[in-house]
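2-oxo-4-hydroxy-4-carboxy-5-ureidoimidazoline decarboxylase structure dump, as promised
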Amino acid sequence: MDINVVNALTYEDFVQLFGNVVERCPLISAAIWSHRPFKDLEDLEVHITEFIHSLPDSGKEGILRCHPDMAGRDLQSGTLTRESQAEQSQAGMTTLDSAEVLQMYRLNSEYKERFGFPFVICARLNNKADIVRQLSERLKNDRAAERERAIEEVKKSVASGYTILSYLTFKPNCNKLTLQKCLLHLST
Ligand SMILES: NC(=O)N[C@H]1NC(=O)NC1=O
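structure tokens r here:
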């Protein structure tokens, strides 16, 4: 896997490719571009999660507030990003019945009222039952503990099963030349 192509990207192409690795937070990729060259894609993921970890509480809460609710209005109105749409769909959020949609709305509303940021979970690692259970259980946390718990879920979305490479193959609408250049080199 040739990481040199990623390291050679202009910051414009880098942000276009990786800008939504953290939902609706392109600033993070724009910032870690300064840390290239990356040893490999795992090193790139580590830089992203370390940047998040280094933020003050207000910055971490800002990242959380950029996440759309699970089964929320963005899903209902079709305004989720491509990544979120796939993640929420995979977790069963697109096949809820009306009672389940109402339950998620009520739990999300209670959560946001209590914490001032939305319930965030790595949807790809959870199913519908997990999400409802975690939302109900995490409502009982204190604010500081829940902020850190939610940020851990964001980091799981960046690292674990969701490698940056799978992200790369996932974004066909980004700059074709950049993507083809990356995939050609990264797959060798
Ligand atoms: N609220 C929330 O966790 N939203 C995000 N999580 C995820 O995996 N996809 C999303 O849209």
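The radius of gyration is 17 Å.
lmk if u need the other ones
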